[in-house]
């Protein structure tokens, strides 16, 4: 029976995880360098934290698809609709079929975008936590701007585009994290000038939590927010103190092996109940 937990996520175990190709700057020099055993321990630890506060559904790992663990890239889920990803890089394109199968067997209506429109799901599309009807959309490296009208039509939500400009932060969820209460944890230098203006205009100053480059490169913005809990790889004392002063509780769990592939906690999970 489907649980009524307010938070439900999809994860995929790392049995076939590894760095086997290079499609982002984090993977450079890391081919075959991820420690499989350590990755499993890190994933299990993260999974156990997640399970304390949320229901976690698991999809099977698939041999030959080392990035399938990054379920944030499966789709963008809203209510009962899942807008399936259409991956830019050939290496990840075969993943879409497995995500589609899992999501439809779980009861989602899976929608696919017209061919030629690139979209990497909840990696590049994040709901604001102040007003749920606002979807922030990052483009410039992976997803294409042409996905926007389709997302608007499929989901009937307002979409705010933000252009990314630093290749280290190639997905929106690597540098931008809406938090409960309408807060926003983000790294401004990852965005172009216009995007920064939009963020400043739309998010009140007392809700904007700017992170330093040091926090950004430790993937502090690639965080899972469950109520007042924030599960992330690492935060400096300064950032931890600021988040705590706003009532958040940090859970730091090391993700070094997944960072070699360019992802951390947020990338390894997909929120399934977005309403
Ligand atoms: N190696 C993967 C890629 O480059 C990492 C994906 C990280 N996912 C994310 N949502 N940021 O596509």
Could you characterize the architecture of this molecule?
With 275 residues, the protein is of the alpha/beta class. It has a single domain, classed as L-arginine/glycine Amidinotransferase, Chain A. Helix content is 24%, strand content 21%. The chain has seven helices and 15 strands. The strands form five sheets. A three-stranded mixed beta sheet has the order 2-1-15, covered by helices on one side. The longest helix has 18 residues. It is globular. It starts with 7 loop residues before the first strand and ends with a strand. The mean pLDDT is 97. The site of arginine has 15 residues, from loops.
Level of helix content? 10-25%
Helices and strands, in order, run as EHEEEHEEEHEEEHEHEEHEHE
CATH class: Alpha Beta
- Category by helix and strand content: alpha/beta
Task: State Rg.
Answer: 17 Å
Number of strands: 15
What is the total number of structural domains?
1
Largest beta sheet: strand ordering: 2-1-15
Could you say which overall geometry the principal axes of the C-alpha atoms support?
globular
Small molecules (ligands, ions, cofactors) in the structure? arginine
pLDDT averaged residue by residue:
97
Just name the CATH architecture.
5-stranded Propeller
């Amino acid at each position: 029976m489907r649980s009524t937990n307010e938070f439900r996520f999809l994860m995929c175990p790392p049995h076939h995880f590894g760095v086997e190709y290079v499609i982002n700057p984090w993977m450079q020099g890391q081919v075959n360098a991820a420690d499989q055993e350590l990755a499993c321990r890190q994933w299990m630890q993260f999974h156990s934290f997640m399970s304390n506060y949320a229901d976690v559904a698991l999809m099977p790992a698939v041999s030959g698809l080392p990035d399938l663990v990054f379920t944030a890239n499966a789709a963008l889920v809203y209510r009962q609709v899942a807008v399936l990803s259409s991956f830019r890089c050939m290496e990840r394109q075969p993943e879409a079929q497995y995500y589609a199968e899992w999501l439809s067997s779980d009861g989602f209506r899976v929608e696919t975008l017209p061919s030629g429109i690139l979209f990497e799901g909840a990696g590049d599309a994040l709901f604001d936590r102040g007003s749920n009807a606002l979807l922030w959309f990052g483009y410039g490296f992976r997803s294409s701007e042409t996905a926007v009208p389709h997302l608007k039509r499929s989901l009937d939500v307002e979409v705010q585009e933000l252009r990314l400009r630093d290749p280290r932060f190639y997905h929106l969820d690597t540098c931008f994290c809406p938090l409960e209460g309408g807060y926003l944890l983000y790294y401004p230098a990852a965005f172009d000038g216009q995007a920064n203006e939009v963020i400043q205009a739309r998010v009140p100053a007392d809700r904007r939590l700017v992170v330093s480059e040091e926090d950004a490169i430790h993937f502090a913005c690639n965080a899972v927010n469950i109520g007042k809990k924030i599960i992330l790889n690492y935060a400096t004392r300064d950032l931890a103190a600021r988040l705590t002063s706003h009532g958040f509780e940090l859970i730091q769990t090391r993700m070094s092996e997944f960072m070699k592939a360019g992802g951390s906690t947020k990338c390894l999970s997909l929120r399934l109940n977005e309403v």
